[in-house]
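Teaching note: in complex prediction, the entire set of molecules is handled at once rather than each chain in isolation. The prompt given to students was simply: 'Predict the structure of this complex.' The entities are:
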Amino acid sequence: MTKPRRDAARALLEEADPSLLELVDNVLTKGVVIHGEIVLGLADVDLIYLRISALLCAADRVLGPGR
Amino acid sequence: MTTGLYVFALLRPSGGDERPSPELTLVPCGGIDAAVVPVSGPPAVDADALRSHDAVVRRLCESSASVLPMRFGSLVVDETALRQWVESVRPSLERGLEVVAGREQMVVRIYGDLEPTVCDEDETVPENLGTRYLRQRLPAMPKPLTRTIEGVRERLGALVLGERVERHQTPPLLATLRHLVPRNAGEAYRAALAGNIPGLEGGKIEISGPWPPYAFTPEELS
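The expected output is the structure of the full assembly:
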């Protein structure tokens, strides 16, 4: 996997608003997988999958100021 | 130059001639259609590409009552390879298309103040000896969280035709429930969950959807 693609994956997560994170959680971590035929770099998917839970629950977004 | 086929979804043929978009091709695979476009390489992982993938899957859901979404980035070499793969997993695909027929997905995320669990517990993972060993060493699900999940289920009642539960170790996000519901039941779903749900003090839930049934594809193909 090339460095530009890894950077693109990180940028996607860092810039994502809540609706995009929901989209990522569905489209990139769910759905039918064709084992052995996936060409997408696995490191991109692993990076996004590992970080998405943390991003979805950003406390200031979820619970508001003062928490 | 075309180097492969990008696969958006597998679906039951609708019998109509109209395609969701002119670029999309429906490859017949013996009672199952595969929605594909020719591509010159794997897609970039960016917001536009993800939104495009979801948009195409949603359009396919408008034309077919039974759609199994593919995960983003699914490429095959050509139609021959695609048909060979479909045949190799046909029983799972047939079962999966039955499960999602006339249905869509809603998502509930549960947030609150609880001690985090030791590790993520994904109840969609088939249990084997190793998983069972780890689960026995985990603390039980916190009772307030259990009460909230049960409260959600009680409110939704017969709207829920399938469920996937995912616990998280990233508070305040404690759990995600993904529900398979009848199509067009999104408003009823949200209405059923309006108001306080017993269990978590100071907690909240967030609802998203409807989605195509991404989380309800056959487990052995996920």
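Point out the following to students. Chain A has four helices and no strands. Confidence is low (pLDDT under 50) at residues 38-43, 59-67 of chain A.
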